[in-house]
Structures are given as C-alpha cells and as structure tokens.
Amino acid sequence: MSWPVSRGNVAAEEAADRLGITEDQLARGGYTVHTTFDLALQDATTALVKNLKGRKGTRLHTAVVAIEPGDVAVRLLYGGL
Hints:
The protein has 81 residues and is an alpha+beta fold. It has helices at residues 10-19, 23-28, 39-50; strands spanning 2-4, 32-34, 62-67, 74-80. A two-stranded antiparallel ribbon has the order 1-2. The longest helix has 12 residues, at 39-50. The relative contact order is 0.18.
C-alpha cells in the first residue's frame, strides 16, 4: 500500500521521525510512504468495532492487530473506542 504523505497518520509520523524532519516537511516534500497496511481491512475493522457493546456499566477498550503469517507484514493496526 502506498499513498501521498499527509499529516496526522501513523505512517507519516514514523517516517518523519526516522528522517529527522517535521510532518509538514514530509507532506510538502513529495514523499510517498509504502506500507503493508490493508486500508479496506482497516475500514472494515473500524466499522465492526464501532458496533461492539460492553456490559452495562462498563467501558470497552478494543485493540486489533492483523499480521500476515508468511511474511509477517502488518496489515492492520487498530486501537480505540
């Protein structure tokens, strides 16, 4: 997966940090970030998690990670709600 760099996403934050530049510089510099993330899987997971309900009087915290067994590529990272 690759996409033009934009501010506020995890891949952009990590890339800027590793390059020793700001996210603004990264966004303006014409860089493209290549990842193994599956955005369709990310979107589907986000939609499914939004429908989860905890027991009455509790707060539910959810984290999901998907890793491809053959090449150990990270396909999905979700943390929230």
